[in-house]
Write a structure and sequence with these properties.
The chain is mostly helical and about 300 residues long. The protein has twelve helices and eight strands. It has helices spanning about 10-30, 35-50, 65-75, 80-90, 95-100, 110-120, 150-160, 165-175, 185-190, 195-205, 245-250, 300-310; strands spanning about 80, 110, 135-140, 180, 210, 225-230, 275-280, 295-300.
C-alpha cells in the first residue's frame, strides 16, 4: 500500500531536512549498497512530506485536493507532472489528475493534447505549447463542468464502437448538442489517432455540421473547446463559405444578429434564438456569391423568418 505523506507543519519538515542533509554525506560513504539505497529512500520521504506540506491542510487535505488547489492557483499555465508529485506527496498523481478530469469535470488537458491544439493555433493567448510533453498538463478553465462525468461515460462507450474516428466524434457531438466539449474528450475518442482536429474541420466545412470554436463562430468559448450548436446540417451551398469569410462577417457584425440585435450572451433556454447563421443577401440560387459583401449575420429565428417571407 502506498505510503501517505506525514501531516506536520512545513517548519518541522524544514528542520528534519536540515538534520538529514547534515549527516547525509557521512552516511552515504557506507560501503553496503542496500544501506545507501535505504538512505536515499528516507531522503525521498523527507522531501515528499515537505512538498505536500507546502499547501496547508486547512486549504487542501487530500492529495487530489492539493493537485486541484495547485491547478487553480496557476490556471492556463503548463504544469509538469513532477510539480504535481511534489505538492500531492504521492507518485500516483496522474491517476488523481484523471479523476479530477473524468469524475469531477475539471478541464485539465495533457501535454499530448495541448501539442495537437497548438497545431491548430487553438491555445490560450501567449502560451507556447509547440514543445509540450505528455507528462505536462494545463487547466483550461477555472469553472467546473459537473456534466463531464456523464459525458466521459458516453465517450467511453462510443470509443469502443467499430466505426471511424470521424463517426465517433460526430456521434459524441450529437449526443451533447449545445455542450462545451473539451479537446481532451476528443483526443480520448480518437484513441491513438491524432487527427481529430482535421476530422472536426471536415465535419464543419465539408459536411455542414455547425461546430463552433472561438475562431469559427463563438469568440466567448475558451481555447480548446468545441460546441455543436444544433443537430442539423447546414444547406449544401452554405458549407462552401470559407472559414476566413465566415469569421470576417461575424466580426464585422460584432457577433450579433443584424435584424434583431441578439447575440450569444443573451441566450436563454426558453428563447428559440440559440445560434447565429450567415444569410446570403442575394440568394445563392440567383448567383449570389459567398463573399463578405453578400453575407450578413442573423439569428436562427430571423433567418427562418426572412426565408419564409421570401418564399411567399
Amino acid at each position: 500500500m502506498p505510503r501517505r505523506p506525514q501531516s506536520r507543519s512545513p517548519e518541522i519538515f524544514k528542520q528534519q531536512v536540515r538534520e538529514f542533509i547534515a549527516s547525509f554525506e557521512k552516511d552515504l560513504n557506507r560501503k553496503d549498497l542496500r544501506e545507501k539505497v535505504l538512505l536515499l529512500v528516507n531522503a525521498f520521504r523527507h522531501i515528499r512530506d515537505f512538498g505536500s506540506s507546502l499547501i496547508p491542510r486547512t486549504e487542501a487535505s487530500s492529495a487530489q485536493d492539493r493537485i486541484l488547489h495547485y491547478f487553480l492557483k496557476y490556471p492556463l499555465t503548463i504544469i509538469h507532472g513532477d510539480e504535481l508529485m511534489v505538492v500531492s506527496g504521492i507518485q500516483e498523481y496522474a491517476r488523481r489528475v484523471r479523476e479530477l478530469r473524468v469524475q469531477m469535470g475539471w478541464a485539465i488537458v495533457s501535454g499530448k493534447t495541448l501539442k495537437l491544439m497548438a497545431k491548430d493555433g487553438d491555445v490560450p493567448e501567449g502560451l507556447d505549447a509547440s514543445k509540450t510533453k505528455p507528462e505536462e498538463y494545463i487547466l483550461l478553465s477555472e469553472k467546473q463542468d459537473r456534466d463531464a462525468a456523464f459525458r466521459w461515460k458516453v465517450a467511453n462507450n462510443i470509443r469502443r464502437e467499430k466505426i471511424s474516428t470521424k463517426e465517433k466524434i460526430l456521434r459524441y457531438f450529437r449526443v451533447n448538442v449545445g455542450q462545451k466539449i473539451s479537446a481532451e474528450e476528443l483526443q480520448y475518442l480518437a484513441g491513438k489517432t491524432s487527427e481529430w482536429g482535421r476530422r472536426i474541420r471536415e465535419l464543419r466545412t465539408e459536411e455542414g455540421w455547425p461546430i463552433v470554436t472561438r475562431f469559427s463562430g463563438d469568440p466567448d468559448l475558451p481555447a480548446g473547446f468545441y460546441v455543436l450548436e444544433r443537430d442539423q446540417q447546414t444547406e449544401v451551398h452554405d458549407r462552401k463559405i470559407p472559414d476566413s469569410i465566415r469569421a470576417e462577417v461575424l466580426e464585422r457584425d460584432n457577433f450579433k444578429c443584424t435584424s434583431c440585435g441578439w447575440d450569444r450572451k443573451m441566450r436563454r433556454p426558453e428563447d428559440p434564438r440559440q445560434f447565429l447563421e450567415l444569410h446570403h443577401l442575394v440568394a445563392h440560387a440567383k448567383g449570389g456569391e459567398n463573399s463578405a459583401e453578400n453575407l450578413t449575420t442573423l439569428c436562427n429565428v430571423c433567418h427562418d423568418r426572412i426565408h419564409a417571407e421570401k418564399g411567399k
